[in-house]
């Protein structure tokens, strides 16, 4: 306890919430409320309505949501597969090789996402690999961007893993593939699901690289939100943002349920 | 059953071969395109290969303003995040209150959302027809509210401080949880007041996490695009914004690649510094990368 006087503690807490609430709680609260309002230029919103959501059921929004969900699902599964494989492969290497693989897989975090988008445009706009204008290029960009996070969490989990399990399995005559499949991967399952959730959430909200790449028939939700706010439809944008946040949270919640089940097994 | 035989090292493919397929995949979709960006930046549209693209772009005022904007907004945001994050984490860790745990969980959720949502929310609060200006015009009867900074660098700064502060708080909270409270009690019983305890006991312990969190936030601010795109500010051009506008709006790929190379160099250099700081910092700082 740093502050001993009762009055002092209250003063600190009041300052804390005076900073915390407007900075962190207000943004999401404002978006939530605005999505139900018809106008808001005063202390309180006016004209509460479900109209913005009804609007969303028509038009392009359902397709945008589906696009985002498919993109995030495919990208995070691919990232999980590649990241896990790379982390397992790197673990088997000597220290030097492991550091090289580490650096290579963490590099996409350092490079600006816009530049990742640009690089894919430059590389895949001409044959033999003509991906520009397809959904594949968007999914590829998302995979590149989130693989680093999958790699990082699986690699961190591998260093925490007790080597006694695989050693005893191997000493009982289990083949390496059997050890991997029946011992290592089940032990890694909690970290794998956590990584999957993180990758999914990041991909759902990805805007920078997507803005560089999206073809007209594959427009993810963040781009739709930008389109709405850019043409001044702020309240529609807010409703779309709520849809984005809700679907992300729903998937994160489902993933954490799987994770709990996995860790109780 | 030969159950007692210890597993001998199996003959087969060498170990490094297992790491090859994912690295090859990364090479195809990331390293090869990056190399092409560098190649494109020295290949002007007029043909041939030279550094003339760099000369033109680096000398243009548009690029210089963008570079200056990027650096000072990122540096300012980082300082803001460090100060705010340190203060908030200090209270959560050392002046605990009921519900503090729930708050740290809330911060985790915060990190799962995209950055541009902050700008969208700020548009409702500080926009020209937003809440603050609305209250002002309602109470004073003026035609316009006084608040109009969202389209300036200050709006970007506010949004970035809001969004990136949790990235500083997480490693800090991890570091704070490892500080022995007996140390603080001892300092307090020897007559040290709270500011002095913070300065002489807590701050030295937190420095590695502050450095790690700060450099991570600096890199992410340099690379930030969504927040700036959503402010719709024509006056605030940063390097990622310049890459986007050159490539997509102007169709000038060699120019965009030149800016991209500068941006990559800046960010990767700082990110390398971050990894070095992270590797040096012990204990709590190690979790900063999450």
What count of helical segments of chain A does DSSP give?
A: 11
- CATH topology heading of chain A: MetI-like fold
Second-tier CATH architecture of chain A: Orthogonal Bundle
How is the biggest beta sheet of chain A arranged? none
Beta percentage of chain B is: under 5%
The counted number of beta strands of chain A is 0
Label the overall shape of chain A: globular
Task: Return residue spans of chain B where pLDDT drops below 50 for at least 5 consecutive residues.
Answer: 1-8, 282-290
Give the SSE string of chain A: HHHHHHHHHHH
Tell me the domain tally of chain B. Answer: 1
- CATH uppermost class of chain A: Mainly Alpha
Q: Which two chains touch over the largest interface?
A: A-B, 92 and 99 residues
Question: Average pLDDT across residues of chain B?
Answer: 83
Elements of chain B, N to C (H/E): HHHHHHHHHHHH
Taking the sheet with the most strands of chain B, its summary is: none
Shape of chain B: globular
The total domain count of chain A is 1
Radius of gyration of chain A: 23 Å
Strand share of the residues of chain A? under 5%
How would you describe the overall organization of this protein?
The complex is a heterodimer of chains A (265) and B (290). With 265 residues, chain A is mostly helical. Chain A is built from eleven helices and no strands. Chain A has helices at residues 6-34, 51-57, 61-91, 95-110, 113-123, 135-160, 163-171, 176-204, 208-213, 221-230, 234-264. The model of chain A has no long low-confidence stretch (mean pLDDT 87). With 290 residues, chain B is an all-alpha fold. Chain B is built from twelve helices and no strands. The longest helix of chain B has 34 residues, at 61-94. Chain B is globular. The two termini of chain B are 46 Å apart. The model of chain B is unreliable at 1-8 and 282-290 (pLDDT under 50). Classes of the chains: A mainly alpha (265), B mainly alpha (290). Chains A and B meet through helix 1, helix 3, helix 4, helix 5 and helix 6 of A and helix 1, helix 3, helix 4, helix 5 and helix 6 of B. Chain A: This is ABC transporter permease subunit.
